[in-house]
Structure formats: C-alpha cells, structure tokens
Specification:
The protein has a single domain, classed as TIM Barrel (Alpha-Beta Barrel), CATH 3.20.20. Helix 9 (166-174) packs across helix 10, helix 10 (176-200) packs parallel to helix 11 and helix 14 (302-316) packs parallel to helix 15. The protein has 15 helices and 11 strands. The chain has a 7-stranded parallel sheet with strand order 1-4-5-8-9-10-11. A two-stranded antiparallel ribbon has the order 2-3. By secondary structure, the chain is of the alpha/beta class. It is 47% helix and 13% strand. It is globular. The structure holds coproporphyrinogen III. This is Uroporphyrinogen decarboxylase. InterPro entries: UROD/MetE-like_sf, Uroporphyrinogen_deCO2ase_HemE, Uroporphyrinogen_deCOase. Its main location: cytoplasm.
Length: 357
C-alpha cells in the first residue's frame, strides 16, 4: 500500500540514534478521556469497545491529540486486550471498574484449548492502522503496539485488573508449565499481531509490559522478558525498505535495564523512578531511551511542569545522536488539564532545540 510521504521523522530518527534538531515527544495514552473531544466521540460510539472496534472512530480519536498539540508521533487507538478478546476470552468493560474477561483461564482444560487466533478476527485493528496512516497524511509516524505476553496473561488469568496477582502467581509457583504454555501461545500470537500491524502501515511498534515490575528478580527474566524476546525475534522489522524500530517498556523494570536491552529492542521505555543519565551510562549507545516524567507532574503549576521537563532533558544530557524520545513514565491520567500538556510539549521542543544545535 502506498502512503503519503513522511514530513516529520524526528521520532524515528531519535529511536535510531541519528541526529535530530530537537527531542521528539509523544505521550502514553495521549488519546483518551482527558480530552473532551474524545469523550464526545466515545459517546457517539456508545462505548470504549464500540470506539476501538470501529476504524473510522479509531482514526478520529487517534488524530485528536495531534490537532491540539504538536506531538511527534501518533499511536494507534486500540487496547492491549483486543488480542485475548480475539482468543475467545470475551472482553467487556464495566463502568468504573475497567476491563473484565467473561472466560478467564483457570483450568488445565482452558489452557489446553487456548490457540493463536485467526488474524482476520483482528482485521478492524489492521484496517484502523491503514486508515490512520492515510489520514495522518505524513504529519508524523504511526506507532503500533501490543501488550507483553506476561501483562496480557495477567488479565487472561486474573480475568480483570488485580492488586496482588494472586491467581497468576499461584499458577506461576504451583503449575509453572501451565503458565509457560499460555505465555508461549500468547507470544506467538503477539508476534503475528504486530507483524500484521507493520504490514498495515505501523512505522514503529511498542510492547507494553505494564505489570512485569510485579515479578521477583529471576522470575521477571523467565516469565516476562523471555517471551518479549521471543516476540521481538519474530518481528519483520524491514518493511517497504525502512526499518521499523521496536520499543520495549516494562513499568518498574529499571533494575533490569541491561537484561531488557539484550531482548533485541531498539529503545527502552522507562518509568519515572529511573535517572536517565545513569540509565544512559548503563546502556551506552546500544539503544535509545524513552521517558520518563511522572504523569502526575502534569498536575503541577506551569512553572513546575516546565522545570520537570528541563530536569529530564538535562538528566539525559548532551544529545549528539538523538537517542531520547520524551514521554511520560506511564499513561496520562484522565483528570489531566489539557492546557498543562501544551506547556509540557512546548517546553520539550523549545528547551531541547537549544541543546541540539
Ligand atoms: O496511548 C494511546 O493513546 C493508545 C491507546 C491505548 C489504550 N490502552 C486506550 C484505552 C493503549 C496503548 C492502551 C494500552 C493498555 N491497555 C495497557 C498498557 C499501558 C498501560 O497503561 O499500562 C493496559 C494495561 C491496558 C488495559 C486497560 N485498558 C485498562 C487497565 C483500562 C482501564 C483503565 C482506565 O483508565 O479506565 C483500559 C481501557 C482503555 N484503554 C481506555 C483507553 C483510552 C479508557 C477507556 C474509556 O474510554 O473508558
């Protein structure tokens, strides 16, 4: 498929550690409930799933934050739970309670029956990718994404968000082979899912390991990172003559930075507990870094927000060859005042431009 020529490649260049005129910025969950226009589209669609499963609506909300702020990348509007939904678990959203599966994986039989879904069931995702890429008209690159096998499996086994991960950790400690089987199927499915997004037009892909950080050292490597590595090794990263960079983000994964680098990703996403200067020293020029302001910093004053942005950019230090993509350390809160996002994006661009000269 032919797409409009890319006008702003600063994000892709930074990921490949090439020279950039300023530090590019985008925000995890940049399309969402903190924007009134998102809530209006969601009301039109009837529900979050109605929104995410309709490529026209998904395109509309993906572009909304770009119309407000001069962001350097767009991210597909979807969810990490669409893949297990296609695996037959029955995704639903209960108002105020977040995602829930009607058929979580609990018994040996549930696990034996789990299979890689026919990717045609996720056609609406790939159609949205192509449609967004066309509608972007080359403004900025489009990021595709999936959850890490571990994080997606947390929801598949718990059936919903959890505070103690009791079900999945019980399986991990008592029946590890059963858990490995779920992770293996999910990893294969995730690789196919991301490859389809790349074929449909995604110009970078990100793996969200939101709950890897709840694992013990040693078990993180075995139950989360090993499967992220498997996914990455199967990605078709050369598409249409260009490289598709892979960003790997484990929330709470700062202690395992060197291990994460060895998974084969091009960039590591970091949360706000990590100092970027120290992280950079640890990874050298092997990968780019993405992050890492605390999303709650957006509840500060304009001055406070600008100061935090400068601190993060200064921590990363002198930029000769890109290597830094500015982002939050986790998703933006639904209560964030949009005006504060303008201050953040403006400060990233203006302050970093003076340093990239
Ligand atoms: O970043 C973007 O703008 C792209 C869209 C995106 C969504 N979810 C939309 C969404 C992305 C990248 C995700 C990823 C996702 N989904 C993750 C990994 C990232 C992270 O935040 O850790 C996880 C763990 C999920 C699972 C999920 N989906 C939860 C826990 C929830 C409920 C959270 C809440 O705030 O209510 C969702 C729903 C969801 N996914 C919303 C959005 C905008 C809110 C739904 C709504 O409109 O009511």
């Amino acid at each position: 498929m032919a797409f409009p020529v890319l006008q702003n490649d600063v994000f892709l260049r930074a990921l490949q550690r090439q020279h950039v005129p300023y530090t590019p910025v985008w925000l995890m969950r940049q399309a969402g409930r903190y924007l009134t226009e998102y809530n209006e589209t969601r009301a039109k669609a009837g529900s979050f799933l109605g929104l995410a499963k309709n490529p026209d609506f998904a395109t509309e909300v993906t572009l909304q934050p770009l119309d407000r702020f001069p962001l350097d990348a767009a991210i597909l509007f979807s969810d990490i739970l669409m893949l297990p939904d296609a695996m037959g678990l029955g995704l639903g959203f209960v108002a105020g309670e977040g995602p829930q599966f009607a058929r979580p994986l609990r018994t040996q039989q549930d696990v034996e029956q789990l299979a890689i879904p026919d990717m045609n069931q996720l056609r609406y995702v790939f159609d949205a990718v192509s449609q967004i890429r066309q509608s972007l008209n080359g403004r900025v690159p489009l990021i595709g994404f999936a959850g890490s096998p571990w994080t997606v499996t947390c929801y598949m086994v718990e059936g919903r968000g959890s505070s103690d991960y009791r079900q999945i950790k019980t399986m991990m400690y008592a029946q590890p082979a059963m858990l490995h089987r779920i992770l293996e199927v999910t990893a294969q499915a995730t690789a196919q899912y991301l490859n389809e997004q790349i074929r449909a037009g995604a110009q970078a892909v990100m793996i969200f390991d939101s709950w890897g950080g709840v694992l013990a050292d040693g078990l993180y490597q075995q139950f989360s990172l090993a499967y992220i590595t498997k996914v990455i090794s199967q990605l078709e990263r050369n598409h249409d003559g260009v490289t598709v960079p892979v960003i790997s983000f484990t929330k709470g994964g700062g202690l395992w930075l060197e291990d994460i680098v060895s998974s084969g990703c091009d960039a590591v996403g970091l949360d706000w507990t990590v100092n970027l200067k120290q992280a950079r020293k640890r990874v050298g020029d092997r990968v780019a870094l993405q992050g890492n302001i605390d999303p709650m910093a957006l509840f500060g004053t304009e001055d406070g927000i600008r100061q935090e942005v400068r601190r993060v950019i200064d921590d990363f230090g002198p930029v000769t060859n890109g290597g830094h993509v500015f982002n939050l350390g986790h998703g933006i809160s639904q209560f964030t005042p949009p005006q504060n996002v303008s201050f953040l994006v403006d400060e990233v661009h203006s302050y970093s431009a003076s340093k990239h000269a």
